[in-house]
Amino acid sequence: MNSKQRFRARLILACIILIAGSLVLALYSIQIIDGKSYVAKADRQYIKSANSVFDRGSIFFSTKDGTYPAAATLTSEYLIYMNPKLIKDPVGTYQALSQYIKLDQEQFMRKAALVNDPYEELARKVGESIVQSISALSLRGIGILKESKRSYPGNQLAAHALGIIGENNGLVEGRYGLERTYEDVLARTGVGGSANIFAQLFSSIGGSVSGGKSGGRGDIVTTIEPTAQGYLENVLAKTSTEWKPDEIGGIIMDPQTGNIVAMAALPSFDPNDTSKVKDPAVFSNSLVENAYEMGSIMKPLTIAAGFDSQAITSSFTYDDTGTITLSGKKISNFDGKARGVIPVQEILSQSLNVGVATVALKVGKDDFSKYFLSFGLGSKTGIDQPNETSGLASNLKTGRDIEIATMAYGQGIAVSPMAMTRALSILANNGKLVTPHIVQEIDYLDGTKKKINPDLGTSVLEKQTVEDVTGMLVKVVDTALRKGALKMEHYSIAAKTGTAQIPDPVTKGYYPDRYLHSFFGYFPAYNPKFIIFLYQKYPKGARYASETLVNPFNDLTKFLIDYYNVPPDR
């Protein structure tokens, strides 16, 4: 054998080894990684539709103690059916079955008489223990089919964040929430379709099915802490019962990382049973998808722009006349009263519209717009939820004094609760604009894991600016908010209320008697572990957020301090 022949032989051998190795890897992918998919396929029978048995990745919560309880997973149920053509003793069969499942005898006999029909359903959602008992009877003409079910063990817990699945052309896919955002990770191939296993095998060799990281398929672990999530939902439910708003919602976030500890909105739903939901809009996450004019919680950001631009200092004073006219329109304090010459602290302590409008105009229209845009107002936050809104911030570009002044106190600019929370967290993390997120880890089917590292953002405010504004907000809580009733002896808390008029789509103005209440706060104020945001749309029987949201915020603050053993800071 000459050298050329030896070379060809070695080349052929190498190719054989390469192909064999690829076959082994592909078989591993199909048998181990996709094994559950094909087991699920084997469980189906020709009578059932393709989507009755499916596979899908799981979603997990994460507790403060480091455990990962299931938030969304798959469970199995069973369907009992009959083939009337094979039933020889309808009465005896009925009597045997009725020991274990509830059956209407007249209906059973009517179905048993349909001898030309090979399939009639008798019962669905039957548990495994009952199925075992029925199977042991060995009844001729009675069949059992396995069905997959997406199960949410927490029921309504974090429903909007998790989302739901649905059917599309015979395939199961995510429709809302994380189920949709992470569809590429949670979906499984080879289930619900009729792909040939050999086509799957050689596609895997070519890389079009497996595609690295098992095609990106796996389970996801969230940042949502189930106990904190449950407490938030209970507080929102209690507040909703008391004030009967059209909507209510809340977010708890780590302002340093953007980790969402809890987020919830009402009305909500149980993803295990969506049959009672009459309006599909309930499935949408209003905390991310809807935009609202937030009112006075915007004022700390305006003051921050004033400090940061050096348009004002902490010693700034102004003559509060109670009302000013800009572009032919009047702007007034909430009570229309003048305060005279007062320091900048009172703008936040008394929530003065004239004062914050004065600051915004001193900053200047161009610089004010640049600051608000740098705070992420008018853009998406990047949170891992579908259909996120950018909000409405076009008034920043009009150049008119009246728009700048009204936006300074949270009217004429609409943002999502998530965007508002992110913007306010700048005051709690030394001036950085973080990216909020819900998923912290992907566990791939091949055993590898991907940690989703927080985007700690870029600085948009100087550290001294946020310290000055934080000090003002602490003073609001210690002395002004309900006359200091919320002050905690050993914890500094920075907080502010907001009350905004709700736009009237008919008149293009504002309702005279409908308001959106908002509230935010972070603590411990100078090294915050949490920022809380709350809102409710059109609560009944109260005009100001200080009447409706102070107690819910206080309850949540005390719970988080106790639950997480937050050390005191004063």
Question: What's the quick description here?
Answer:
With 570 residues, the protein is α+β, with helices and mostly antiparallel strands. It is 35% helix and 22% strand. The strands form 7 sheets. Strands 1, 2, 3, 4, 7, 17 and 18 form a 7-stranded mixed beta sheet that branches. A 5-stranded antiparallel beta sheet has the order 9-8-22-21-20, sandwiched between helices. It has a two-stranded antiparallel ribbon with strand order 5-6.
Would you give an account of this structure?
A hairpin with a 4-residue loop joins strand 17 and strand 18. The model is unreliable at 37-51 and 190-214 (pLDDT under 50). The longest helix has 31 residues, at 3-33. The chain is 35% helix and 22% strand. By secondary structure, it is α+β, with helices and mostly antiparallel strands. Strands 1, 2, 3, 4, 7, 17 and 18 form a seven-stranded mixed sheet that branches. The protein folds into three domains: 1-69 and 153-221, no CATH class; 75-151, Penicillin-binding protein 2a (Domain 2), CATH 3.90.1310; 226-270 and 285-563, Beta-lactamase, CATH 3.40.710.10.
